[in-house]
Amino acid sequence: MDGVVTAVGWAGAGLLLAAYALASAERIAAGGHGFQVMNLLGALALTINSGHHRAWPSAILNVAWIAIGLVTLGRRSLPATASADLEAPAAPPMSAGTARRHP
Question: Does any domain span residue 24?
Answer without folding.
Answer: yes
